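Progress report, Aim 2. The chain analyzed during this reporting quarter is listed below.
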Amino acid sequence: MNHPVLLDSLQRPMLDLRISVTDRCNFRCAYCMPSEIFDQHHTFLPRAELLSFEEIVRVAQVFVCLGVRKIRLTGGEPLLRRGIERLVAQLAALRTPQGELVEVTMTTNGAFRY
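Predicted structure tokens for the chain:
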């Protein structure tokens, strides 16, 4: 059975998905938080407005069904999101339509010391 596949503007399959688990970051990298949008007057989302883990998993599953094979969790310091280990476990359990596991990775700015 053929499954639909997402293609980029050059007609390549989109295999990777980045999911930001928080909208707050202690850095202001130009590629992710450009100053023309995220200036000193920018208001971050109330915590209740962030996607729940269940919503994130549902969106990720849709993308996996469309060809995504790797999910990267981001968000400045995603390890600060309470319960992040539950989300990682749920995403790691996702399978492609062919039954293969999805690769789950995380990018952190690693700036905090405990």
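The first strand starts at residue 16 and ends at 20. The chain has one domain: 16-106. These observations will guide the mutagenesis work planned for the next reporting period.
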